[in-house]
Amino acid sequence: MSRIEVDRERCVGSGACEALAPDVFEVDDEGLLVVHRPEPDTDELGNVQDAVQACPTGALSLAE
Ligand code: SF4
Question: Which Pfam family, any one, appears in the UniProt record (predicted)?
């Protein structure tokens, strides 16, 4: 099971992750990232990996 890790100091609330994996990530009204599923299902993993790559500040990573 992979686990999403967020470096909150780096997150700037751009929402790129939400655009790619909206069931997993959400930027709330205050611009703070909410991770709905820190341990995403296998069928969500591709989108999550895309989101990790797309994050402009490198705030996301996946840990095993
Ligand atoms: S893509 Fe990166 S910087 Fe943008 S909201 Fe997601 S974690 Fe934060």
Answer: Fer4_13
In the chain, DSSP finds a helix count (H) and a strand count (E) of: 2, 4
Q: What pLDDT digit, counting tens, does each position of 19-45 carry?
A: 999 999 999 999 999 999 999 999 999
Ligand 1 pocket: which of 11, 18, 28, 29 to mutate (most atoms within 8 A of CB): 11
Confidence of residue 17 (pLDDT cuts 50, 70, 90): very high
**What CATH number is given for 3-63 in this structure?**
3.30.70.20
Spans of all domains in the chain: 3-63
In testing the pocket of ligand 1, which one of 4, 25, 33 has its CB within 8 Å of the most ligand atoms?
A: 33
